[in-house]
Amino acid sequence: MRALLQRVSAASVVVEGEHISEIGHGWLVLLGVGQKDSGAEIKKLVDKIVGLRLFADESGKFNRSVVDVGGALLIVSQFTLYADTSSGRRPGFSGAAAPEIARRLYEETLSAAAATGLTVKGGKFGADMKVSLVNDGPVTLMLDTEMM
User: Per residue in 77-103, pLDDT tens?
Assistant: First the structure.
């Protein structure tokens, strides 16, 4: 699984003109599910996301996690994180999981994240979403469970 994390002061998702979710301070997580992913990676990924100390303490140093600052997570599925751009101008997406598998693992990730006690919101799997964010920092990280 791949997760692109953006520290935000606000983020939201709109689908077909309807505002479906929003958070204040926390992480916007763009989540990609790969063909080799089975769900065994979910706990490790969620633990890493909620435990990363990339929020400032009183001294302005990265010493606090999203849990420590009372933040939230907005998790949005994004198969394009598995784009293969190695040749030509049109990316291939054969590394992404099939939609039915990706949907199940995305939903399991939302549940695992909610089980941490954080406020967790999601996008709408498979929909054309308009995602808005106010990037805080900016602080942006890429996590890949194959490298964890």
Answer: 999 999 999 999 999 999 999 999 999
